[in-house]
Design brief:
The protein is of the alpha+beta class. 24% of the residues lie in helices and 23% in strands.
């Protein structure tokens, strides 16, 4: 017999943000304001960025992260990374967001397919995908506000 690979215990340490300092999300516009702080106005029309907001049970923002950046027409998104962040922060819900440098607020077929993929993956861990928001320098489109989630 060969050598066995022994799996050592993994320890996760988590400290949530101070509760009275966490932003509370009440609507899609509140979430857009959070994402606009993350995606620079200097680059919103230059290339695509894909972000995730991690939310508590009471829709307070535990954290936000940019999980992808790409070209003027696309970005690569790793659903596994979104789930890792969600689990590490003990998030009850998430909102995903990306920008369209073209200024077009219409969701593409790939945007809709990715939303479905993220939603199905989240279900496995009882994490709610609350919205997918597309932003441009002029406005935003919310999947939830338009009945697509």
């Amino acid at each position: 017999m060969g050598n066995l690979n022994v799996i050592h215990e993994v320890q996760v340490i988590y400290k949530r943000p101070v509760i009275n300092q966490m932003e509370k999300i009440k609507c899609s516009n509140d979430m857009v304001e959070v994402f606009r702080k993350l995606i620079s106005e200097d680059q919103i029309d230059l290339k695509e960025f894909f972000c995730v907001a991690l939310l508590s049970r009471s829709n307070q923002v535990l954290g936000v992260s940019t999980v992808g950046s790409g070209t003027a027409t696309q970005t690569v998104v790793n659903v596994r990374e979104i789930l890792q962040l969600s689990l590490k922060t003990n998030a009850n819900g998430i909102v995903i967001c990306h920008n369209h440098p073209s200024g077009n607020l219409k969701a593409s077929d790939s945007d809709i397919a990715l939303t479905g993929k993220v939603k199905e993956a989240c279900k496995l861990f009882e994490i709610a995908l609350l919205d997918h928001i597309i932003i441009t320098s002029e406005g935003y489109y919310s999947f939830a506000d338009n009945g697509l989630i």
